[in-house]
Amino acid sequence: MRRDTVVGLFSVVLGGLYCAETLQIRRATVGNPWAPRVFPLAISLFLIALGVAVLIVDRKKAALEGEKKGLEAKKAKDPGYVKLIVGTVVLCGAYGFAFEPLGYLLSTLCFMFLLLMLVNEPKRWISNIIITLVFTFALWGTFVYVFDISLPSFNLESLNLEEVAGWIGGSV
Amino acid sequence: MCKKLLVAALLAAVFAGVLEAPALAAFPSRNFECLAPAGPGGGWDTTMRMVAKVLTEQGIISRAMPVINKPGGGGGVALAYINGKKDPHTIAVYSPPLLLINLTGQTELSYKNVTPLAMLINDFGAFAVPKDSPYKNITDLFDAIKKDPKSVKLGGTSSPGSMDHIQFLHAVKSAGIDVKDIPYIAFQGGEALAALLGGHIDVYTTGMAEVVGPLEAGDIRVLAITSPERIKDGPLAQVPTLKEQGVDAVFINWRGIFGIPNMPEEARAFMEDALKRMSETPEWAEICARNGWTNVFMGSSDFSAFLEKTNDEYKSLLETIGLYQQAQ
Amino acid sequence: MESSVLSNLLFGFSVAVKWQNFGMMIVGSALGTVLGMLPGLGPSTGIALLLPLTFVMPPEMALITMCAVYYGAMFGGSRSSILLNIPGDGAAVASCFDGYPMAQQGRAEAALAISAIASFIGGLISCVAFVAIAVPVARFALRFGPPEYFVLMVFALAATAAISKEELLKGLISMFIGLMLTTVGIDLQSGVQRFTFGTVELQSGIDFVVVIIGVYGLGEILKEYQTLRMKGETSVQTKFGRVWISWEDWRRCWLPILRQTPIGFFIGVLPGAGGTIAAMMSYNNEKQLSKHPDEFGKGAIEGLAAPEAANNACSIGAMIPMFTLGVPGSGTTAVMLGALMIYGLQPGPLLFQNNPEIAWGVIASLFLSNVICAIINIPLAGLLVRVLAVPPRVLYPLVIGMAFLGVYTINYSAAEFVLLTLLGLLGYFMKCYKIPTAPLILAVVVGSSMEQTFRQALIMSDGSVVVFFRSIICNVLWLLAALSIAWPFISDWRQKRKAAA
């Protein structure tokens, strides 16, 4: 598909979904009951209209220069980039879930090391370990001692002990 | 298999050991997180900062007490936040909106989702107009509202149905005037005061502390305060109460400190005691005097009973105004 | 009158140069610069964090320190914009547009230098303006009510969306996606929850810093992954020059700096608009006025100088409503105002009568902090620029790690990490499909106040839209908004006519 075809479709679909969600908003108990919907509704309509406009312009261009032209010569890409992107996104998500229960130090050490192994390649594992340690403790020192920001420490409450026990029992 | 089990058991033991340690540590075991459920500069923010300041400066609490602003939803955002906390080192300041946002259906959370620690102060509302306003006193203003409710634009720093709004409607209703159609505009932070100074709203309904500065500077006029008696000194001493002007209404803005839901007894008792000791310091008395707050300490259990009673009162007030709604 | 201002100012300097105050100014400026450089930690977070530390100081020293931190953060905010294409806060977004291309072309030294120089000049002029015309400007700013703010936001958005006419439609899509993000959370005018999908975390809305770091920072890195392994080590800069600018650079920049400073200053005085709007508007304005607008976005040095000057001018302007009226002009000054009240000082015009040592001491300290920040930043930049020698395969993981920690400090919640990741993917998608990201960022910054002022205005007028045309300010702003959309077409037409003739 041509690049702008995707953009146009994306805008139309996003606008549509957003519009559907807007209609679910609860009526306001004070003032005009519809007031909270007006602005989102306007946004969704604009998104749909703009998406359609992009599609129309794109069709015209496609008719002029042929279906393939809009793809233009792609810059050469490293074939492994998908792995990097997916890996980073998965690690980032996992970091978010691990940060509070495991605490800053443990989760950040794991996160940084795995991320470096992914991006900086496993063959540089020694430098990866060093960078991870320096980064984690340097930032920790800066935040906790210089800026007086408390970072989460290993927190038992967020870990469900029964769940852990059940998991251990289950593995027997 | 046996080895695996052993490793798992060992791991569990290590974990349990690590996990147990902080639980036994005495409260407070780390720095606090003091929530001001509004933007910086308002009544909640000021109260929380003063409390944190006196508690730490007087050495009552040795841990740091940074104040964090969590504005939004008339306090609902901070309420949801503290309700989800499990660590008792988070405290928050609240006042009537805690009950009101629940009664107007904005959130299903209520005063039952936090642990009342202590009521600290009573404050009162103030109704201000620009210095060149045609309204010289509360009677002028109420007459204008009676004639045409839409002619007076009311502004405040919280969402509709919350305290700033309700205290004004309460006064208007007490004067025997229909309150249905008075337009109310919600602002954030200092924007409402700027809007009043610029003449974009006609009346600013707010707390007393917010009007002292511009009143002293002569930029605004305060038509009335909602206290039962006049304030004894400071610039507000010249401002008449509602009662003096023939409107039989009082609106108390109580403020207290709250902890997380189901707060551990040890932590609750510690905080109640710390706040009691704080309320008895001369520094606290001086802060109260300077801000025109009445220093009233009320302990945890009395405060809970007070909240229950007040909640019923607000509920009936909101029902008559037509704003009461069950959260969906 | 003038002589009394001068003698007051001299008195202020005598307070500011006391060694304790002067020392704290240096510490504050340095700390602020570091805070500003870290993604996610902007001036207002910085000041709020330092608030407890300042309790032990006398009030004038505390305020001077806070101002220095504020100021340092404004200087530091653009470092990571230029070097990594990751803005430290909203006000530094516009510095990415030309600052990062400059760094990529091996002109990082010049970019860092002009950013410090433009900040310094913008700040200095604004300090003078502060002393000379603070009161009348603040009074004028009060004439901005909800309708005026709404039209101002429309103008700012129109100007940014129209920044490139080829991408006008996609720019608008980007803008509306940004506006969409701001509707998430509890609605101020009604208290109704919108688009929270039942999650507590979304009730407070999506913080714009998360959007900036996600769409710009993470999105940029994900995009760079495409060619990461292919570039090898060739893209790393190994030789560094002196952090300074050439005469030719200066010749191009002095006029943009001078003419964008007043814009930034005035936007700062408005209580409802901030540094991001100031920087974006001055960038757009400079591009429109420039003789070679096609160079903008490709490393035009004046495209960096203009927003830098405006954004520092804005930070000085923002202090005016606080000092003259007791109204906070920005998130940062709101925190300072809260601090003043903790000391039992009543902010507002009476501060000059009751506590002249504080009012004038702080004003004098603004002049001095400005100089100190400029002095700190030039050699510091020489050090920072070496970050370009770090190979991307190491740099990117480090930047991602810092971004997450910065985001954590916004709400002290790791729930935003997931949001940050999703926004990073959005940024990646937008970059791949050539949707400009600048309109989205500005929309995220102004979106919420745009909707709120729109509805405040309608409540004021009882539902009549005539209110948006009620004043000269409104109408002028509408005209400017229309002009800024039409401008690319007008200049196009003029060029064609010239070519024909």
Question: How does this structure look, described?
Answer:
The complex is a heterotrimer of chains A (172), B (328) and C (501). In chain A, helix 3 packs antiparallel against helix 4 and helix 4 (104-119) runs antiparallel to helix 5. Mean pLDDT of chain A is 81; it is low at 157-164. Chain A folds into two domains: 3-71; 76-172, no CATH class. Chain A has six helices and no strands. Chain A is mainly α and 172 residues long. Chain B is an alpha/beta fold and 328 residues long. Chain B has two domains: 31-123 and 253-321, 3-Layer(aba) Sandwich (D-Maltodextrin-Binding Protein, domain 2); 124-245, D-Maltodextrin-Binding Protein, domain 2 (3-Layer(aba) Sandwich). Chain B has eleven helices and ten strands. Chain B has helices at 2-24, 43-57, 76-83, 97-103, 138-147, 163-174, 191-197, 208-216, 265-279, 282-291, 300-321; strands at residues 33-36, 67-69, 90-94, 115-130, 154-156, 184-186, 203-207, 220-225, 252-259, 294-298. In chain B, strands 1, 2, 3, 4, 5, 6, 7, 8, 9 and 10 form a ten-stranded mixed β-sheet that branches. The N and C termini of chain B lie far apart (52 Å). Helix content of chain C is 73%, strand content 1%. Chain C has one domain. Chain C has 501 residues and is mainly alpha-helical. Chain C has helices spanning 2-16, 19-37, 43-54, 59-76, 79-84, 94-104, 108-141, 146-161, 168-182, 208-231, 247-269, 275-289, 301-317, 319-325, 331-342, 350-354, 356-384, 392-411, 415-432, 438-460, 472-500, and strands at 185-186, 193-194. The radius of gyration of chain C is 22 Å and the shape is globular. The termini of chain C are far apart. At the A-C interface, helix 1, helix 2, helix 3, helix 4 and helix 5 of A face helix 3, helix 9, strand 2, helix 10 and helix 18 of C.
